[in-house]
Structure formats: C-alpha cells, structure tokens
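Standup notes
- DV: blocked on the single-chain target, sequence here:
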Amino acid sequence: MKAVVISSPGGPEALEVREVEDLPAPGDGEVLVKVAAAGVNRADTVQRQGKYPPPPGASLYPGLECSGTILALGPNVPPRWAIGDQVRSLPCVCALLTGGGYAEKVVVPAGQLLPVPEGVSLTDAAGLPEVACTVWSTVFMASHLSPGESFLIHGGSSGIGTFAIQIAKHLGIKVFVTAGSEEKLAACKDLGADVCINYKTQDFVSRIKEETDGKGVDVILDNIGGSYLQRNLNSLAVDGRLFIIGFMGGVVTEVNLAVMLARRLTVQAAGLRNRNLTNKAQIVSEVEKNVWPAVVLGKVKPVVYKTFPLFEAAESHKLMETSSHIGKILLIP
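- DV (later): unblocked, structure below
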C-alpha cells in the first residue's frame, strides 16, 4: 500500500509517499479501514519535526483521523460494524487514530470508530473525529461548559475553532473568539460567534472585560500556552476553567497565581493521542451520543478549507503552517 513516510525530521519536504509493507490482519477488537480521506492536524506537523513521536506500538505514519470503509474485522468486533459498503445502512465510518491516517489503509480499534453522520460526505467526515473528540473531551467532559455560560476560543478559524463555535452555539453558550484577520473573524461570525476579537489589533482581555461587565468568561480553550497564560487567567470569571491543548506560544512563562486563588480558577491541559484505548473509546462514545445528533440536524457542519491528493502531503503541511486556512485541511489517497 502507499503511505506518507517522514524521511527524516524536518520541514514539509520530509514527507514522502512510498510503497510500504501491507498492514497485518486486524487483531482482537480491531478493524481494517480503506482510507477515503485523512485530516491534517497541527500535531502532524510537530511529529514531522521530530518533536511529537508516536506512542509505543502506534503507526509511524502521521494522521490522527480518517474516513473510509471497513475492509476486514478482527475477532471480537461489535456486530454493528460490517464489512464492505452495501451491507448496512451506515457502512461508512470515520475514526480517531493514534497515527497512520496518511495511508491507503489503517488498522483502528473498534472503539474509535464512528458512523459517518447522515448528510455528511465520506470525504468531509474525515475532518470530524479529532476536532469533535478534542472539543467534547476538554470543554464539555472536563471543563463542564454548560448552557448559559460564556466560552472563549483562541484560534476560532482553525479546525477545532470552527467546530467549537458551532457546537457551543447549538448548546446555548455565548461564544467569544480570537483570530488574526478580518476574513477569519467574518468566518467565525458566520458560524455563530457572538464576539470576534482580532488579537493583532485588540487586547482580548480588555475586550472580554468590556463585553462581560468586568466578569470574564467561564471557559477558555487555548492552543497558545505560555505566552497567553497570564492573560487567559485574567480573562476568566469566578470559578472559570482554562483548558490548554497546544503550545504555539511556548511552554515556559512566568505567572502571577494570585488571580487563581481569588477567583477559584481551574487550569487543565491534555491531548488525545496518548490516552489509553478505554479512555478514547469513552470519548468517542460520548461524541456519538452528544455531538452526532447535532451534525445530523445540520447544526454542526464540517468546515473544509482545501483537499490535497496524498502525494501532495508536503503542500498540505505548508498550508497548515501558514495558518492562513479556515477550517480543516484533508488528504485524499
């Protein structure tokens, strides 16, 4: 089969499509999926640079989500999953992966499979698993964002941001976003964001205080890390929750912790890739239960900016690293 290989840690040119050994038969509780499309995520670019190695036992090929059809089942796979594309009414799947999505085929634990939601194309579905599982596990399962509360999303025009805006608005939450251009802010507004802040020209802390009568927001989803930590804490309301999912602004900073004590603030950080199979399966199950109905209703839609053929994986990473895109970037084998 063909797969994208990281020839050596480095820039996008390190990505090469090669003919590689076929995958072994799926093991206990696993399925073999023929990949229709794979999502490109920023974590893939960090892996390419040699800074985010796959967990032990994971595929060395990048790719943390995909869509496709099931080719083979291992032992003890739940009966809901069928082989082929004409056996059941929902034969097509999308999947949360630990790696290996940049390939023609991938082996997936059955607990990380989701049916392609009605009304979503097989290609576009590849852009749902990582964002849906990230946002639901961090913002809702861990930070307990609730209807009537307020929510700040940094990078509102990213794949995660465009998804988070939609699901939060569907659930009755006031949404604040930051983004770096008027085009991106307009896209966020169109998706339902209530307050759109250009972080290049405005101080987001001041704007949030202004919009909330000095109270601050209840939950922040942050992909910046160090350089935003103090400002994020200053933007939170009493009992506010900050969840960090990335470190584009660095991992080291100096912070005044007094605000955490004064306002009873909570700071958490986590990713998806290194969680165990049981935890991932729980998240995927919660996403299917709580998010998929909103997707079927059209309240949450995948926002796909551009697709690339697999052999242009390097170009997809170049685009990702410009941060000029709005929504998801996909690869098509």
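- Follow-up: The two ends are 10 Å apart (CA to CA).
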